[in-house]
Amino acid sequence: MVNDWSLAFFTLTSSYECISILVITTDALNFRQSPVSEQENLAQRRQNVEFFLCAPASLREKIWRFSMRDLGVVETILRNRIHFFQEIRDGIGLREKMRAMLISSLVFMALYGAVMGSTHSLWQALSSAAKLPVLFIATLFICAPTLYFFNVLFGSHQSLTQNVALILTAITVTSVLLLSFTPITLFFLLTTSQYQFFKLLNVGIFAIAGIMGVRFLGQGMRIVAAEAEGDSARRRVLRMWMLLYAFVGSQLAWTIRPFIGAPSIEFELFRQLGGNFYTNIFASLGEVLGFFVVR
User: Fold this and answer.
1) What does the alpha-carbon distance between residue 176 and residue 198 come to, in Å, rounded to a whole number?
2) Where are the domains of the chain?
3) Which percentage of the chain shows pLDDT scores above 90?
């Protein structure tokens, strides 16, 4: 079993082998309750990994080239953000930038979502890998028109495409930071079995990554609209919009939950509506601190 955990952490360094983390971790967690022998379980895990890694060499090479071309935008944002925002202001390569940021965000969030869901089952991991990117992209489409029209109202000359590109920059930074937290999430996934603690851990990680993402958005908005009138009013609008974005995102996340999956409940793609995100977080915090038990 120790070799399996070491393999799970080591494969994080490879883009193809990241998929194997989901398979190894999920099957290893299920092994605790499985009557199958350890030898059969190990053979099944190896077979699952080989299934994901046995694509033809030509296909893997095409995927690698396509991914590297689009994932290169991440390094540009992190290392040369001012130049990147200036190009958005000038409308240079907006379509290519938006496509690259969208693909990068989808890949990174899908990987992190898979790790989140692997605490429960393989189906939950696949479900979370699909729902986490949908959560961020759907929130973007819901909130982007509000930011655009309020900016226009206060003197901005940005187009809707430029606004979407700036928001995608924030989402890309958030997704990169989520991926960087993956080893920490995996560590606690393998070393603790307390569901409420793991849920609060992920809420904290999303809060940190989201705050850094909106900081990039604020910097980008200032650079793109540096010479336009009404700058102070647009900054206030941006702060209010960030709160709106966080509120819409948290409510949408609650609507399409679960992302982790309670160990005492069978896999569900969606749960019935009831309660809200904030009361559930306070209840989880109360259980972790020992005040009461969440049922």
Assistant:
1) 20
2) 1-54, 73-288
3) 33
